[in-house]
């Protein structure tokens, strides 16, 4: 029987045992690898899974162009939307022409909607603008790229970043409108918009018109205030402070304190009129310079008129009003000077634009005839015949500003008007001050013709002759006058003695008056008796009858 433990060692002095055959070793079969290989295998599987997950979760890679890479760092700068990370900056490099930088951004899988054409990207950093201070949180956390998801269905990988954050995001509710104006004024992106002094929106952009004659302003009115923008809405500049001086005193008007610094816009329907239907998105409006111009009714086509003044135009400027008895009919558009070689004199032409509709709206019985019609020409000729003239008047005594006034002067010299000339030439008349200056100049000329030296010489000779006359009167006539006065004094004394109360004349007169009084009393008694007894004229007194 084989000993599994091997042969038994021989005892001391004993015989050697016979050799045993080598045992046959049978190795068991291994079905699993060694545990040493399990760890790297699991690690490899996890790595493959992470790679697959990163590939599956990886979003699109886009390139954004910025003017500068200030505040951006590869691997650190994040891309955020509503403070949620949607990607990160992977690389920054210069463009081939070195004019800007190209920022490579890797978006997350959930941010695939940002890789469309109308998406917007900008760098968020501390800024101070018309809408206020923004990006203060980046002072500690660092700059990041802000994003605004677009609504387009077309994908894109190349974008041009905004240099300033957009005033309004795409998901904000409201309406956008377009305004046209002659000048931008103090407007800027973020400038507030007011409705009845409540801020309801802001300016989102502006651009110069292609022809260079004006500017186009894009604005946004937030919901629910956009319902107050109707087809009949008027828009105007509400920047700064509006100071008005009239018979009621000084009026100061401003939309808010912010408009004094950064400007502003305002809109409202004309007083007494409805808003009309709500204006559609991207509707176009005109932007007036102030509320007064915005609320004015449409003026229609202007009529160009020129007036020649023979006086200084100092104080008259382009834009000065032209009024007819307080109603503003237009404004001055050009001021020039012309030389007349025949008269060898200078004339001062003033060109104005008149709006006849401003006057026709105030005509009580119907409207005035339309401009450039035979009826309007006939009316203008009649007005000129009645004394319609242009006149320069002082509008402000402090500044010396002038304006053109149209009025009827019945005593004005007759004048003719050429209705076929373009522009129509209206006659003028000097103002009161100018007439006074002419009259003073005329009086000065007449006074200059008076020979004051000769008059003084003659007056001196007359005074000498008068002095000689007075000397003669004093030497010859005064003694005779003294005798005459003595005789007159004696006469007055005799008359006084005659008229004294105790004089005989006074006594005789007094007695005569008493007798006359008694006679009148008798006549009075007789008349009373005859009135009572008229038959006594025939019969006599009753006591006298036999």
Describe this structure in words.
There is one protein chain. It is built from 10 helices and 26 strands. By secondary structure, the protein is of the alpha+beta class. Strands 19, 20, 21, 22, 23, 24, 25 and 26 form an 8-stranded mixed sheet that branches. A 7-stranded mixed sheet has the order 5-8-2-3-4-1-9. A 7-stranded mixed β-barrel has the order 10-13-12-11-17-14-18. It is elongated and about 230 Å long. The N and C termini lie far apart (238 Å). The model is unreliable at 1-5 and 245-249 (pLDDT under 50).
What structural class should be given to the helix and strand makeup?
alpha+beta
Distance between the termini: 238 Å
Average pLDDT, rounded to a whole number, is 79
Number of strands: 26
Q: Provide the β-strand percentage band.
A: 25-35%
Major beta-sheet overview: 8 strands, mixed
Give the total of domains.
4
Total number of helical segments? 10
Helix fraction, binned, reads: 25-40%
Shape: elongated
How large, in whole angstroms, is the Cα Rg?
A: 58 Å
Low-confidence stretches: 1-5, 245-249
